[in-house]
Amino acid sequence: MVVGGRPYGSRLTSAGGRLPEMSLISIVDDDQPLLDSMRRLMRALGYPAQTFSSAADFLASPRLGETACLIADVHMPGMNGDDLHRRLINSGYSIPTILVTAYPDNVVQARALKDGIVCYLHKPLDPNQLVDCIRSALDRPRSVAGS
Question: Do residues 10 and 138 lie in contact, with contact meaning Cβ atoms separated by under 8 Å?
Fold first, then answer.
């Protein structure tokens, strides 16, 4: 099966090289069926994936420093995806982030993209578009506080 112009399981960057060893995709969403579906898709694409049901769970995770790409829902109880991205940046983590939402808002989208969000996607997600965004995220430089 082909997704995003590459066969499932392909771990090549857009330049055709191997992905860096650290390519954990962390997914934060309060919708458990979506988390399960996204985890299966990431694994089918060859990416290790970890899911979290809240921003607080992700921030408390030992996997935070391993995350090469973050996919987060915009609307969640507690901290939303946009606030999570800003919290990470303010804490010194520059994790390429993709925001997803079932309630698109042009103002939120414009602000998020201005703040460095890689992609702002609408649910239901188009797998090809998601894969393109992940590849773009993994191609971006990442820095962590203290490095």
Answer: no
Residue 12, pLDDT above cutoff 80: no
Cβ–Cβ < 8 Å for 78, 54? yes
pLDDT tens readout for residues 36-62: 999 999 999 899 999 999 999 999 999
Q: Which residue has the tokens 């996997």?
A: 63
* Distance from C-alpha of 100 to C-alpha of 72, rounded to nearest angstrom: 6
Rg (CA), the chain: 14
Q: Which helix (H) or strand (E) holds 121?
A: strand 119-122
Structural tokens at position 97: 């982030």
| Tokens found for residue 29 | 């969403």
Which residues are CB-neighbours of 90 under 8 A, at least 6 positions away?
none
Q: Pick the closest to residue 26 from 84, 68, 70 (CA basis).
A: 70
pTM, whole model, 2 decimals? 0.82
Digit-coded pLDDT (tens) for 63-88: 999 999 999 999 999 999 999 999 99
